[in-house]
Amino acid sequence: MRAAIYLSRETIPLNTYTAQLSQKAQDALNILLTTTSRTGSQGTKDAIQQLTMDEQISVMDALVEQLRKVDNWAKSPNGFMGACLLAKFSEGGAKILNRFIIELKNKGFNYPWFNTRLKTKLGIRSKQWVLHNLV
Question: Across all residues in the chain, what is the average pLDDT?
Answer without folding.
Answer: 80
